[in-house]
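From the thread on structure requests for the teaching lab: each student submitted one protein with a one-line request. Submission from student K.M.:

"Model Sugar phosphate isomerase/epimerase family protein from Scopulibacillus cellulosilyticus, tokens only."
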Amino acid sequence: MTKQFSLAHLTVLNCPPPEMTYIAARAGYDFVSLRPIYMRLPGEPNYDLAKNKEMMRQTKAALNDTDLKLLDIELARISDGIDPKSYLPAMEVAAELGGRHVLSSIWTDDRNLAIERFDELCELAKPFGLTIELEFVPIAGVFDLKGALGVLRTVKQENAGLMIDVHHFHRSRDKAEDLDTVPREWFRYLHLCDAPAEIPASKDEMTRILREERSYVGEGGIDVASIVNRIPEIPYSLEIPNTKRANELGYEEFARRCLQTAKAYLAAHPRKISVD
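Reply posted by the TA:
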């Protein structure tokens, strides 16, 4: 099976969706993964396509011009102060652009609230034909594989799945063999990247690396192959934010090198057995 790759928005965060789409096409990607849900994080641009009609028009035109597909949108966070219904406009955007998935993560320690709102998010996505992919993040409320699987097994939603980010998997100290217990149909795409093997002791440093200084696949210290080769053949979304390199190379060349190094690494570490 030919491997497929998506350019994740965090890799080229200052590129508006139309420009990002053209860059992804020229660099050789199959998909884009957009961030039309405004996160209100320091320095993060607002690409709310539901409100910015002109940017939405340009994004749709870029997808049509390039024949690229929209893989997923992000990030539908579950937290104490966010109503899942606030994500409906972004879901409409995803459906109109032909997207498949909505990425979610849980940032509350209230498990009952997390279950209730994640379940609601899945229900809201169904009329749009979208799946909700739960990503565990080591600095969030649901921070490891066990916690994410607990949520998915409780809600029992057919359109819910598990999105593994290689960085987060390593930082959460999970074991690759534990992926064997996950239903195969829960895997729909994953975030591919690398990072130093040493796990930062502080939350601030972990956050800095995950948002600003990830490594090309195969360049860091994570045993990436041990993770991805336990998962069925699904699209790889390259989420490799590295502010210094992006500034030095420009976003297009940086995106191209992210793809080239990922392809080279995967070719050098083929699957030994089928996990489909």
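TA comment: The two ends are 11 Å apart (CA to CA). The CA atoms of residues 11 and 240 lie 5 Å apart.
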